[in-house]
Amino acid sequence: MTQDKEDDYSPIHLNAYMITRTHIYVKCPYCYTRYNKDGKPSKSSKNYFHIHGSGGDLSNRIETRGHDGSNEFYKQYNIRGEFYIHITDDTPRTNMNLTEYAKFIKSGKN
Q1: With DSSP H G I counted as helix, E B as strand and the rest as coil, what are the percentages for the chain, rounded to 5?
Q2: What is the C-alpha R_g of the chain?
Q3: Comparing C-alpha atoms, which of 61, 65, 40 is closest to residue 52?
Q4: Average of pLDDT values for 37-57?
Q5: 63 CB contacts (<8 Å, ≥6 apart)?
Q6: What is the DSSP letter of 36?
Q7: Which residue from 30, 1, 10, 6 is spatially nearest to 81, judged by alpha carbons?
Q8: Could you read off the pLDDT of 6-20 as tens digits, one per residue?
């Protein structure tokens, strides 16, 4: 993940975690699965996966996405630029969903 400058409109570059014929999965460096009452991520939380449509296209490319428009996101991270999701030769392609894929990887059958 990189951003050219903070508090500007520079794009944030992320690598896709996985792509299927229906979805692109992106592990977000900003969002977590659990938060404490003070708003900070809990120690047991993990980075959240955002899911975007792939349009059936499994080719290498860069997809552009914006944030959800939350003012809190802008305030907390000083980020206003779009997210550029890089789908490369290193991006796994599968027909499994993320949960099935994680189980497959854990099984060691790959």
Answers
A1: 15, 35, 50
A2: 15
A3: 65
A4: 90
A5: 16, 24, 52, 84, 85, 87
A6: -
A7: 10
A8: 556 778 899 999 999
